[in-house]
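Re: Re: token formats

Sure, here are both.
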Amino acid sequence: MNVEPAVYRIVTGEYQVNTYILSCPETGEGAIIDPGGDGNKILALLKEKRIRARYILNTHGHADHIIANRELKKALDLQICMHEEDAAFFSRPDILKTEEKELGLSTPGKADIKLKDGDTITVGKLTIRVIHTPGHSPGSVCYLAGGSLFTGDTLFVGDVGRSDLSGGSFATLLNSIKEKIIVLPLDTKILPGHDYGETPDSTLAWEMEENPYITDFILAE
């Protein structure tokens, strides 16, 4: 039977990414979501909580969310997971050059495991489901573990991710939220990739009532 993960949030890197470490409370096995830098800080938390990380789970391929991938893979012998579309998109030399101009940094989206919508990742007794939510980038995903949804830059507290970067589409982003996110249970906890809202996290019920992109663009249709 699936169990609820233990979840720890730390803010990493120049772009202040919410990096999450989740672990199976019964086995101590875990995963790192979006290591945005500060690899030593991530390693210290893993040691403190006695978590044996097995995977890096990237919500998308933008450099600010994957900057510590290689450092942690080398230190811990982890497998890097990314949706197949972003793994391909962010390995293109032309896209890396564009990303350098857009974000001020770039790094290839190399992945050991190329994910597809509906894939599951097992960590101890945790089952983590991959939900493909393109719009911020072609291969953006959310990860659902128990009642927690790690939304990356698809959905923020009271806001949505940018769609003006290379590979982005506002219409596609809204459709992803409509078709893949708001259909989940209302008590689903929303854990975004940046702390841009009034609180670091929220619930789907709150977003359905307060997020103008949901109330005005999706529910008002």
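Second one below.
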Amino acid sequence: MQEGEINVGVDVSKEKLDVHVRPLGERFTVDNDAKGHARLVKRLRGRPIMRIVLEATGGYEASAVLALGQAGLPACVVNPRQVHDFKKSTGQLAKTDVIDAEVLSHFGEAIRPDVRPLPDETALELSALVARRRQLVEMRTAELNRLEKNPKRAIARGLRRHVDWLEKEIRQVEEDLDKMIKGSPLMSEKSGRLQTTPGVGPVLSRSLLADLPELGTLNRKEVAALVDVAPFNDDSGKRVKDGNRHIRGGRANVRCVLYMGASSAARHNPVIRALYNRLLEGGKKKKVALVACMRKLLTILNAMIRTGSDWDPNFAIA
């Protein structure tokens, strides 16, 4: 830690924000609403703050992060699993909101997570619509699975009505997404560029725009690590014989959609198909080969946005 450096931890709940300022030991609580966010900004503005660390909480942190970003304060949202592992490593077993805020400020000081550009209102709305579409699709899948079990006639009728309603809602959300993207020249340009790539359709391009706003601003290793399509070693004891590598953390929502895109690209994209076939011929399992394709596809898309280039079949990006 550099002398005079301040790191702030903010533990987020639905109703309130518990704040710890390290190394000053200052603690305070504000409401998790517009007035509370204004108080938070007022308390922190003008200090030599290196980073303000919040955990991803499924959306409860979004408005606070936006308020901090608009005030020019260096907020960063981190993966809760990373913080949990860090907390265990320090021997901290107790759990309260106050303690969690202190752990977050300590995490910021010790781990020094990157402060990345924060999304604006349009990006947040796009992300919310993408999340809503994902929820509706999951509900439709669940109802269709129930229909496959041949339920009683009255239940089947209700399931079909619900499926019809869900499909209508999905179409409406997709129309809203397309309208929002077309209404933003920058998003429209990026979406069109991404979809010049064989295997990349509207669902993947929307998800990347909404949930990976850093696309095009990072190098290939950084973007792969952010989404976590860079499997890590797990060689310990007997496991060293397995030769397996694992994925953990990262942007799970992006990774799920990217998996489907890579599956399509492995059939229709000449660069990804060549990689996929080469790995299979070399004895790799299909899932391992697909993860490698996900990484390759992501690094290509990242380079396309960074350089402002459409798809080129001669891409040779590692």
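Residues 153-182 form the longest helix (30 residues). The longest strand covers residues 6-12.
- S.
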